[in-house]
Amino acid sequence: MAQEGPLVSIIVATFNRGPFLERCLRSILDQSYQNLECWVIDGASNDQSLEILRRLQKQDSRLKFISEPDAGEVYAVNKGLDWIEGEILGFQASDDFYVPDAVERSVQFLLAHPEFAGVSGDARYVDPSGRPLGRGMITYRGEMSEATIKSLLMRRPITCFLVHGAFFGWRDRILKTGKFDPAFSVTPDVEFYLRVLKSGERLGCLARMQVNYTVHPDMGAVKFWEKVEAQLEQLRRQYGLNLFQRFVGKTGGRAYSYFSNPYRSPFLPGVIRELQQLLFRGISKVKRRFGRSGGQ
């Protein structure tokens, strides 16, 4: 599949991600499916990002970019939605990168299954140099529709039910309820896809690796984990999960997420990493509370 098929637009929001940016953009421009455009919305980076963007744009006119101050990733993505021209759109984080045929396989799925407004796949965790870490995350294998929203929130209590960086969808159908909501600053994808499902659309799954997800200390999910948890809890309440259902999600749902994931960590290392994260979060809370009380 070369230039045939619908135009695909991929939005990359970035700010000071120079060490990862070229790898991400080359994974887009070198896709086996070539009928695409890539819009990079840069928040006025002061590292090597602009140099990379200018150089790659000279090599490939399908790369387009804007660089100006913005209010964060959600605003950047929404700005990009005003510029794209493709019938199909996707979103990518500038520190992650696609497998070579991710776009082609997604377009094939959408053309073959018009009952779905969008489709996502799985992610492989890699270190900053791109080396696989031996684990990953999956897009939910069951039905993703309005009827299954509560089930999705219970079964996937700490992550989104699909991999955002592996998602592609028909632009008009997935945007019919609006753009990303800035009120969900660290979980905009979860809120957005729940809204798409609530509108009556269905989302599909490609049970294969579509994207490489880079794990590093500066990840938003690591830096802003308290906001993530608070916003996910808000969504659980918004979509009608009662206290018991929220409890089941945080216990049985976590177990379900672990055992249904073919790319899960070995059990003991996974438990150790979970305990380390809980300890880190507990210490962080104590430090913040001590700091606040000490300043009063």
Describe this structure in words.
The chain has about 300 residues and is an alpha/beta fold. It is about 45% helix and about 20% strand. It has 11 helices and 9 strands. Strands 1, 2, 3, 4, 5, 6, 7, 8 and 9 form a 9-stranded mixed sheet that branches. The longest helix is centred in the C-terminal third of the chain and has 28 residues, at about 265-295. The model has no long low-confidence stretch (mean pLDDT about 90).
Q: What labels describe this entry?
A:
19% strand; Spore Coat Polysaccharide Biosynthesis Protein SpsA, Chain A; alpha/beta; 11 helices; 296 residues
Please write out the topology.
Elements lengths: L7 E7 L3 H12 L6 E7 L6 H11 L3 E5 L5 H9 L6 E6 L3 E2 L3 H11 L5 E9 L5 E6 L11 H7 L12 E3 H4 L13 H11 L4 E12 L5 H4 L1 H14 L4 H17 L7 H28 L2
Parallel strand pairs: 1-2, 1-4, 2-3, 6-9
Antiparallel strand pairs: 4-8, 5-9, 6-7, 6-8
Helix pairs in contact: 1-2
Summarize the structure.
This protein has 296 residues and is α/β, with parallel strands linked by helices. The protein is built from 11 helices and 9 strands. Strands 1, 2, 3, 4, 5, 6, 7, 8 and 9 form a 9-stranded mixed beta sheet that branches.
The CATH architecture of the largest domain can be given as Alpha-Beta Complex
Helix count from the secondary structure assignment: 11
User: What general form does the structure show?
Assistant: globular
Instruction: Supply the CATH class of the largest domain.
Output: Alpha Beta
Sequence of secondary-structure elements: EHEHEHEEHEEHEHHEHHHH
Output the CATH homologous superfamily of the largest domain.
Spore Coat Polysaccharide Biosynthesis Protein SpsA, Chain A
In percent terms, what proportion of residues is strand?
15-25%
CATH topology of the largest domain: Spore Coat Polysaccharide Biosynthesis Protein SpsA, Chain A
Tell me the domain tally. 2
Largest sheet: 9 strands, mixed
What structural class do you assign from the helix and strand content?
A: alpha/beta
Q: Say what oligomer this is.
A: single chain
Low-confidence region ranges: none
